[in-house]
Amino acid sequence: MSPIAFGSLERLRAGFPALERGAYLSICDKAILHNQVRAAVETFLDRLASGTCSRVEHEVLVNASRARFAALVSATPGEVAISRNVSDGINAVIWALDWQEGDNAVISLDLEHPNNVYPWLRLRKRGVELRNIPSVDGRLDYEAMTGALDGRTRMLSCASVSFAPGYRADLERLGRAARARDVLFLVDGVQSAGILRHDFDAERVDAFATSTSKGLLGLYGYGFLYLAERWIDRLEPAYLSRPAIALDNDDASATGSYDYQLQPDARRFEVGSYNVAGAYAADAALALLDLAGAERVETHALAVAATLREELAAAGLAEVSTATGPTEASHLVTAGPLDAGGHGFSETPWVEALSAQLTEAQVVHTVRRGQLRFATHFYNSDADTRLVLDVLRSWRGAA
């Protein structure tokens, strides 16, 4: 059983209607809504329908969610910008740097989601060298990545947890190497935010892009971009609109002086109107995560994932992702050959067959890069593991 008594989280779990249907082991794909998060969105809709809230009053929730996220990752609110999603945040950082021909960036493209691939490929049009470091057995090659840094390296990037096969990156190791050369370290954090703990100062992360649509338990179209204070004045936003400009009032239609000044903090990267529904949802979801406790959420999610991983391997399932150490383990569990297939399909017959059986049994999961993929959050329990194993035994018995 998990080291944390699941009963201590049972009350929070009861607020997720999706869990009444079966096992939800797919937070790596998308979040499920808690009743309190849905109620927050409905409050926004009621206020919008009745016209009882001004824009400024709605945006109280924008700033509240910003502050809650900052507290979650041991940052300051001034280091957090509101974005639409991971892609928005990644592009904002990449195109804010004054790249010069002959500069280079270091990344392991084969472990990245496409949204952290194409922006880098586009940089080549500016004469920037993209130093692509191949992964090794689905893992970052840390020695090769840090060894690729030199005096012309401007950025280093990786995912905090790969979307498949799901290993956790040693951010502190990469961040330390980047900091030593004054290289900006940019992290795609959507697979870890809200589930695994982060302290960006300790991890030496300079920029971190995430959405609320996964572990942060919110909606699509709302996200956070962290920028370390030491980098904010060294970056020039590619896009500018009213939220990015420092004025002494909250009037969204006020232009002020044409001799404008940027916001003194990360808000200079905010563009246009906020997704206010997303802000209502994010504030409520982050309140739930705060109630659960970041340490408790991580410990519980990792424990349930470890049980599932061990049981699948013991049952003889092929190529179950197994961490080489505690810092590599995440809440994602994968099985089957890597890259024998793609998004939503596998060229491995048993993966396809078992996936169909799991779906029939109401075990929500995904297939990515040809692998079966499961992921846990604080609402999962060892009962979910037992259901997966029951399906596995039933499938083998029928085969």
CATH C-level of the largest domain: Alpha Beta
Largest β-sheet summary: 7 strands, mixed
Unreliable spans are 1-6
CATH superfamily label of the largest domain: Type I PLP-dependent aspartate aminotransferase-like (Major domain)
Please give the domain count. 2
* General form: globular
Gyration radius over CA: 22 Å
CA-to-CA gap between the ends? 30 Å
Strand content: 5-15%
Describe this structure in words.
A 7-stranded mixed sheet has the order 2-8-7-6-5-3-4, with helices on both faces. A 3-stranded antiparallel sheet has the order 9-14-13, covered by helices on one side. Strands 1-12 form a two-stranded parallel ribbon. Helix 2 (35-50) runs antiparallel to helix 11 (276-292), helix 4 packs parallel to helix 11 (276-292) and helix 13 packs across helix 14 (382-398). The chain folds into 2 domains: 7-30 and 294-398, Aspartate Aminotransferase, domain 1 (Alpha-Beta Complex), CATH 3.90.1150.10; 38-289, Type I PLP-dependent aspartate aminotransferase-like (Major domain) (Aspartate Aminotransferase, domain 2), CATH 3.40.640.10. The protein is α/β, with parallel strands linked by helices and 399 residues long. The longest helix has 21 residues, at 294-314. It has helices at 7-13, 35-50, 55-58, 60-72, 86-94, 118-123, 142-147, 171-180, 200-203, 229-232, 276-292, 294-314, 349-360, 382-398, and strands at residues 23-24, 80-83, 104-107, 129-132, 153-159, 184-188, 207-211, 223-227, 332-335, 341-342, 345-346, 363-364, 366-368, 371-375. Residues 1-6 have low confidence and may be disordered.
